[in-house]
Design brief:
The complex is a heterodimer. Chain A is of the alpha+beta class. Chain A has helices at residues 7-26, 30-33, 36-39, 96-107; strands spanning 40-50, 53-62, 68-71, 78-82, 113-123, 126-137, 140-152, 157-164. In chain A, 23% of the residues lie in helices and 42% in strands. A 6-stranded antiparallel sheet of chain A has the order 3-4-8-7-6-5, covered by helices on one side. In chain A, a hairpin with a 2-residue loop joins strand 5 (113-123) and strand 6. The longest helix of chain A has 20 residues, at 7-26. The radius of gyration of chain A is 23 Å and the shape is elongated. The two termini of chain A are 40 Å apart. The mean pLDDT of chain A is 94. In chain B, strand 2 (46-57) and strand 3 form a beta hairpin.
Chain lengths: 175, 82
Amino acid sequence: MALEDDPRVSKAEELLWDHYRRAMERAGQGEQALYLKQHAKARPATLKEEGGLTTIRFDMHLRASDYSVKLNAQDGGLAGWQFPLLGEDPGRVLSSGDALMVAQEAAKPPADAVLAYSRYEEVAGRPVFVARWHHAVKGVPVERDYIHVLVNGKTGRVFGLYRKWHDVDPSFSER
Amino acid sequence: MDEPAARSAAEGAKAAAGVPADYRFESAQRRFIELAEGSAGAPSRVRDCLAWVVRYSGEMGGWRDLAIEDATGKVVRVQRSK
């Protein structure tokens, strides 16, 4: 049985959160205790039975950043994601050409993608490298199809990617 | 359908499509657009349609886009500035 499925683990986790909640209330932080689980995560690490006692050890993880994912409601396909932590402490270390190569590797633009623009932009006063592709079939634009990639120009890491793309189909279908 | 034919079709349809009389032709672009099967606002199947999107604009910045289906010359969509 996986640790997460052991009923003793869920019971222990309840006790763990209760312990933290009480500690925060004692410290006069009762209101913040309501949001504790949004900022920390307990992951069961080991379970040891010894001398009639069961000891469960948790690894505690603190939330470093939001991470958002956008899914196609029709087929569950990944339509986009953004991980702001990877976008922190940005800069213009990478040349535009090198940053575009990073974006291109993540975007994997199809053969009928057309690079609309790629450049450093100021977002909330910070430099962000943005690359955007549009969709064109034999030179004819496909309305509203795009791939949009955000790159941290200092670390060379992609921190956001959005994609709306479909094969042109003149017959009715659900998308 | 070429651009002059699309512009001509749009000119003939613009009054019925609600384009104000003082709006002037701005641009025409051939593109694939998505058309829904049912009424707007409700989930429905869609199809791609090759169309000429002809834009008329007014002096105050407003605009109307008439999408003329390439195969039939009919207006299949009207969009307006908000």
